[in-house]
Amino acid sequence: MAHETLAAWLDIAVVDAERSRAFYTEILGVSTSAIPMSDEQGSYNDHCLHAVKDGPALAGVCHRRGLNSAVPAAWIPYFRVASLDAAVARAVVLGAAVIDGPRDCAGTHIAIVRDLDGAVFGLVGA
Predict the structure, then answer these.
(1) For the domain that residue 44 is a member of, what is the CATH number?
(2) What are the residues facing 122 on neighbouring strands?
(3) Neighbour-count burial of 2, counting CB atoms closer than 10 A to its CB (0-12 exposed, 13-18 middle, 19+ buried)
(4) For site-directed labelling of 53, which of 47, 59, 60, 69 has its Cα 20 to 30 A away?
């Protein structure tokens, strides 16, 4: 199983995603694309970061609201697993805490977990 578990994504959830998008665009020299979102407060955009314009999305800069309201404001690595539900259940048995999910996110099934030392990471179902 370990050889199938790969880093799949990075993202950060912040209070002001527009400010963070501008910051990371300047620092990293990347381009961005908007992801339309909405919650009970209205519509807004989260953002994908791209190494090259119109290239594959490499990371996300998200508002810490709506679906991401429980997500900590830190860069979170996501790891691909064969079975999200099995991986989350096993993490809990081993002493981890589920922060968010499992839930659907942009056509992907994800969960965010805090490990035994407090480190936060995401799991993505294959």
Answers:
(1) 3.10.180.10
(2) 78, 112
(3) exposed
(4) 69
